Each structure stands twice: as C-alpha cells, then as structure tokens.
Predict the 3D structure of the following.
Amino acid sequence: MTEEIPESGMDTLRELINIGIGRAAGTLNELTHARVILEVPVVELIRMGELQCHAASFDGAPSSAVRINFNGFISGSTALVFNTAGAAALVYAITGEEFEKTEMDVMMAETLKEVGNICINGIMGSIGNILHERITYTPPRYDEGTIPSLFRKSIEHDQMLAIIVNTRFLVSEIDVDGYIMMLLEFSSLEKILSKIAESEGGGI
C-alpha cells in the first residue's frame, strides 16, 4: 500500500504519530498514579479490506474500542482498540484497583474512554500542528464487539484506508497490546501528505 504514496511523507507521518504517543504517555503519567510507558513498534497503512488480517490477532475475542470521529479539512475516525480482557487489565493497572474481572463495566468503560481520548488527541494534535486547518471532533464513544462488527461500515467502503498503530501499554507489571486505528478516505490522506510536503519544503 505504501508504494502508492511518497515514503518520505509516510516517514514524517510515523514521526508525528510517535510524537503524539509520547505526549499521550506524558499526560497519562500526570493524571494517574501509575507509570505508563507507550511503545509504538509498528505504523502501517492498509486498505480497510485488509483489516480482517489484523482481526485475527485477537483470536476472535471480544474487543473494546474508544472512537472519536473528525471532520472538516479531513474527515474520518480514530479508535483505540484492545481485546476486552486486555482493556480491563489496563484499567485496573491505571486505577491501581485490585484485578477482579475481565469484563468491562460502566465505570471501567468511562476510564478507558479517557485513556482513549488522551491517546487519540495526542496523535490528532500532532497531525493538526502540520495541517493548520479547522477540524472538529465528536466526544469519545465506547463500543464492544468483534473487529469486523466494530468497523463494518468502514470495511465495506472501498475508498477507506487505515493507518494502523500497533501500541504496547506498559503499566506496573502488565504489558497490554492494542491498536490505534486512524480511518480515513484516500483524499484526506493526500491532504495530510500534501501539508507534510509543504512543511518539509519550508523546513519543519
């Protein structure tokens, strides 16, 4: 997929995402009593039809997702996704509460929404610094289901792309893998890459 767009643009986009993740980790550390480390081993661009391959990594287990939609100069949505058991473990580690169950209740979902909001805004804020354009956001929404059911409408949209950020949350003694998925049409990606090229031309 990446051979269809400038690799230099993708490299800068990966750098922006890493900056955003770093800011998110700093914010989480300030707001919680836990030491939160976020690692980003992989950032890749795929077509939505290929998302099924990533769904296999959850072994069909239920997933928990926090999603924020955005529109304006670019439009799409960004989601933080875990398998539900991993999401529960992360919430307990961040809140410092004793681990009790692998299912999410209402209060745990609210905590995960805040974590997702911080992570997503860290990334979108970094990209927004390059765009210098108006983008509006919806409040974060929490959903549970399989990957295909959570992203069914986007998977069926053949013009949709997904920037997949494979994340690792290291908190206390736990290590939780998750995904940050930025879903957008090719035209929006072109606008982002065009702004990146302009910035690089003038010196970032």
Notes: The chain has a mean pLDDT of 85. The first strand starts at residue 36 and ends at 47.
